[in-house]
Amino acid sequence: xxxxxxxxxxxxxxxxxxxxxxxxxxxxxxxxxxxxxxxxxxxxxxxxxxxxxxxxxxxxxxxxxxxxxxxxxxxxxxxxxxxxxxxxxxxxxxxxxxxxxxxxxxxxxxxxxxxxxxxxxxxxxxxxxxxxxxxxxxxxxxxxxxxxxxxxxxxxxxxxxxxxxxxxxxxxxxxxxxxxxxxxxxxxxxxxxxxxxxxxxxxxxxxxxxxxxxxxxxxxxxxxxxxxxxxxxxxxxxxxxxxxxxxxxxxxxxxxxxxxxxxxxxxxxxxxxxxxxxxxxxxxxxxxxxxxxxxxxxxxxxxxxxxxxxxxxxxxxxxxxxxxxxxxxxxxxxxxxxxxxxxxxxxxxxxxxxxxxxxxxxxxxxxxxxxxxxxxxxxxxxxxx
Length: 385
Description:
By secondary structure, this protein is an alpha/beta fold. It has helices at residues 14-26, 39-49, 62-68, 79-87, 105-113, 124-140, 149-157, 183-186, 191-194, 204-212, 214-227, 265-273, 287-290, 304-315, 319-335, 341-350, 363-384; strands at residues 5-9, 29-35, 53-56, 75-78, 94-97, 117-120, 144-146, 166-173, 234-238, 244-250, 255-259. A seven-stranded parallel beta sheet has the order 4-3-2-1-5-6-7, with helices on both faces. Strands 9-8-10-11 form a four-stranded mixed beta sheet, with helices on one face. The radius of gyration is 20 Å and the shape is globular.
């Protein structure tokens, strides 16, 4: 098997650290690293893997970080430009994009422009700029390989099938920590409550998105672009055990699902070794340990974010970028304890009332739509203060 040369964006987060774990076990080289936070861990990673380039996204950390690595030959960059430079690193053949939020869009486009395959864990890239990303990838002849466990599962289930044979995608959701709760019961939940995910160890933003079910709404939008299907072809199923990572129903009503333990190293490794399978970095699935696997419909009247995301992709255009921007702004305010949990869904829903920027779909228009939605959230919160 070919020895991969990786650029890892978001290297200090959950997906990034597990990617580096897989890279170490597989003997891959790491050409570039980039991270927004946890500068101490980024320095440790830089010294362990000795990439040619490291980007510290926070420009305020640039000088001290560069000084910390002064005894090495590693080149240090910063900010959005540095992130895009890491994504387009000449030596890399594959870019793992594991940054959080729509900040991942521009480096994804930079990687594609440089002819790199992209192992994509940053769902906001396709949520906000899906048509642009897919068109650019086709033009350059590069692969967009899904890293999210659900999209990896769908990707695996589709191997060997033809596009016209796909009838329906079954997108599974854990339901998060508040499954079965009513709006009344959610009125006073805390940040700590929202961050208690039952099955996965993730960062604060993604864990909050899981609690609101926005994460599943974003994944639905992402699936539309990854697999070329219509929103109505995707059914979301709450599956508390997180063993069935998703499935596909074909035109003959046969259903194929991908199962495994809830360990992100499996989909990460598959994205890096595709189309080959190699020895697993995670434990073997023991179905007898689970005994029963359950499925249920999500409650879209309680978890408004999911309903808003589904409406956004039906309307298309820049609406997904606006609900995503509103969500990123609202989640940041919630984690900062400035709004309640339920306000996240209300603000995301409210963003659908905005008029998107006019003109053709471009990266600049996406950022305009994002700024419009973030401004709306801040205005609404300030008015209520």
